[in-house]
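Board notes, transcribed. Complex of a protein with magnesium ion.
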Amino acid sequence: MIRIVEVGPRDGLQNEPTSIPTRVKSQFIADLAEVGLKEIEATSFVHPKAVPQLADADDLWPMLSGAKFSALVPNSRGLDRARALGVDRIAVFTAASSAFTEKNIRMTIDESLAVFKEVIDQFHESQPNGWVRGYLSTVFECPYAGPVSPEQVKSVTESLFEMGVDEVSLGDTIGVGSPKDVAAVHQAVRGFDQGKIAWHFHDTRGTAIANTAKALELGYTIFDASAGGLGGCPYAPGAGGNLATEDLVYFLEREGIETGIDLKMLAQASLPILEALGRPAQSKAQLAVLAAHK
Ligand code: MG
C-alpha cells in the first residue's frame, strides 16, 4: 500500500509572499481531502513573523476535516499553540547538513535535535498516541556546503528515531538527485524500518519521478508531494520545487499502483491557489489532464 503525504498547504505555500486568505486555503485543503488525499500537512505553528503566510494556523486548524492532518511545530511555543488546538500529528524539521540548518533555522543539527527532543517529549505528555514526523532535508546535497554523505543522513535519521519520531521524511531539498543518489542513501538507511521512511523529492531538475521509481523498486512506500507542484525552491530562483502530486499520482496509477485519488479532480484543486499567486500550472500531468477536460 502506497501512502502519499500531501504537503502543498504547508511546504508549498510557506515561501510565498502573496498572502492567501484563510478561507481559500481551507477550501483548497477540503478539496484535497475530497479528491482522496488521506494525509495532508496543513500548516505550521511557526512564529508568524518568520513565515507570515502561515500566520493563520490557529484559525485554519479548526476548519479542517476529512483527512489526517498534521502541522509543522518548530519549538515549544509552536507546540503550545498546537496543543491548545488538540493537534495530534506534528512534524519537526532538520537537515543532514549543518550549514543548511544554521542558515534556515539558526541552529546546528545537534541544537535542532535537542529542541525537538523537548518538543516531542512535551507533545507525548498531552498526546500519548500522537504521531510525529521528522523532516530531514538536504539528504543528497546542501546549497551551501555541497554534497552530503549518506552516512550523515543515516546518523541524523538514527537520532530522530531515537527521540521517538514515528516517521522520517528524506528530502532532496534542492532537487539535484538522481536514482544513483537514492540508491546510495538507501544503502545507508537500509537498517531502519522501511515502512517508516518517506521520500520527499523535488522536481527542480526533472528527476523526481525517476527517483520515485527507484525508491519504489527499493521497496519504499511513502512519498511526499505537493498539489499543483506548489512550492518554488527558494535556493534556485525560478526553478520548480516540490514534486507535483498530479505527476506522482499519474505515474503510480500508470504503473498499476492504485492511489484512490481522482486525478481529474486533483488537477482542479490547486487552480484557485495558483490563480491567487499569479502562477501558471507547471505539473505536466496536471496540464495534460486540464487540457483533456477543457
Ligand atoms: Mg519540499
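Residues 35 and 262 are 5 Å apart (CA to CA). The beta strands are 3-6, 39-44, 68-72, 89-95, 131-137, 141-142, 146-147, 167-171, 197-200, 222-225.
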